[in-house]
Amino acid sequence: xxxxxxxxxxxxxxxxxxxxxxxxxxxxxxxxxxxxxxxxxxxxxxxxxxxxxxxxxxxxxxxxxxxxxxxxxxxxxxxxxxxxxxxxxxxxxxxxxxxxxxxxxxxxxxxxxxxxxxxxxxxxxxxxxxxxxxxxxxxxxxxxxxxxxxxxxxxxxxxxxxxxxxxxxxxxxxxxxxxxxxxxxxxxxxxxxxxxxxxxxxxxxxxxxxxxxxxxxxxxxxxxxxxxxxxxxxxxxxxxxxxxxxxxxxxxxxxxxxxxxxxxxxxxxxxxxxxxxxxxxxxxxxxxxxxxxxxxxxxxxxxxxxxxxxxxxxxxxxxxxxxxxxxxxxxxxxxxxxxxxxxxxxxxxxxxxxxxxxxxxxxxxxxxxxxxxxxxxxxxxxxxxxxxxxxxxxxxxxxxxxxxxxxxxxxxxxxxxxxxxxxxxxxxxxxxxxxxxxxxxxxxxxxxxxxxxxxxxxxxxxxxxxxxxxxxxxxxxxxxxxxxxxxxxxxxxxxxxxxxxxxxxxxxxxxxxxxxxxxxxxxxxxxxxxxxxxxxxxxxxxxxxxxxxxxxxxxxxxxxxxxxxxxxxxxxxxxxxxxxxxxxxxxxxxxxxxxxxxxxxxxxxxxxxxxxxxxxxxxxxxxxxxxxxxxxxxxxxxxxxxxxxxxxxxxxxxxxxxxxxxxxxxxxxxxxxxxxxxxxxxxxxxxxxxxxxxxxxxxxxxxxxxxxxxxxxx
Length: 714
Fold this sequence. Notes:
alpha+beta, Immunoglobulin-like, GTPase Activation - p120GAP, domain 1, five-stranded antiparallel β-sheet, 19 helices, about 35% helix, disordered C terminus, GTPase activation, Ras_GTPase, Ras GTPase-activating protein 4B isoform X3, zinc
């Protein structure tokens, strides 16, 4: 049995932040640290004291973590970014909220002496003597110390204090992983109550030394133990008075801790086989499990369930079959063509997830050059007359400021050029699109055309493809390119506006330029000729994409083609996965969209955070964001699906009673014998078996801190 921990994090918004700029405003962003290791950085929201982020992340971390901290920063172009405040949530706090912590939290002041990290290796002994015992403290080494110097390291030394005496180690230059191997002794009187304090410091030549953390020990406990050795987590200095809470503003957060006890692989075999059999049979089989799972899963949980199922079937080589089953189920219950795949259905969520693993490298090839050019040019672009700021543009002549009309026309030309370039790149990319993506889109196109064969619905198969390709993949990547690994940093305010307007134009093309898409924002009209031409180009692209002969695509999404699968191999998907994004970062909840999907002014970015963010180093503390290029953990995915099914067990049993009653009535009328055991009954039995396996397996609880009995609880 193995214990796995994860954090679901949503950074919603802030309010009443203090002004850090001379303009009376701030440019806030958030940094998330787990045990002082930075793993997340949100986008910057410019010129506001009430920022809105709406970014979500899934974080994997060791069960022994202690704290997650949210820092609100003010970005400055010419100087070091200002720290506004922070919110800290301990593991114990999160454990007391099994459904997750959700709400507003006051920001508190950030004290440098509290910003510590790392561990120190010590050996402590009580040595008997002729007259009195002696306390021997061996300072061996430290690891993962906070970098306090500009070169990204520190010059650490250790100060040991006991009973009024202080001794210090030598200084180790430029290291966060120093070794000392130095021993100090103190006279120890029986019954002494004085604490032993071991402090780590960063030595500075001209300024004061920086505090790196401390460990405080109860000598009486040590007297009983006589000898102890181990790694001890450095603690902050919390002796200073803190600024009153509330005057630094507040942060709205949603944080949920999940601890999973994962059983051995054999325990999940029956569950995996049952789900795989239904997917293989498709709609022709008697199974009702996938429709029932979708029916009984709340909207808030549907993205997570879609992710877990898709990853499970990826590992089993059945992702394409799973998606095809979902396509058929949604088409079977859809009567209006203009509502197809526009809701938060399991098909929509699963397909969106699939594109983020199989299509990320393709996305980079098509979008990358255009995004780079927009970032490099930094042109002022605005189409909405109510938002035009002529002063930001400068002069078009020697001394004559541009008029509003000239700004709008120049902006339209810039956006038409970007949109035209993007559409041309897309049209040239048919062969570059991964075979698994082409096969899945062809499958989707054919299913939709079979369901809506009339001439009046000739555009529906195209819109089904663009609803994923444009509206749920390309447009979010244009709005937030860093979150899709297209850029290393988030865009500034001017570039963000250009990207948002381009994303709106791409969505209009993806909506096939319907009247509804044009009516909401009439000021987008200058782009209409390019949008109209783009619809023709996009339809031609999709036609070619789905007409490639199937013999060229003998690379279905088999288990051997996904990294981490049991069978290995599969170079194409292995290459794709190296460029894959993080699936769990997503919108809070996509609205039930109308036929014409719009990008709102306060659009929530699709939060897909890069593993290359500062501090996201797997070799140090194993705290990582969920990545698609990580090997699949089949047992963990099966456990997550089991846990979700267990939550709906009562509803599943009620559904089984209803179905059983109907089956018995039909058998009596027809005179047929008892039907064979149905899939739902088998699923309920599997859930019962897994419950028993969990209850019988020993739960190995890991201590939060090695040798924690020696620490003095202050």
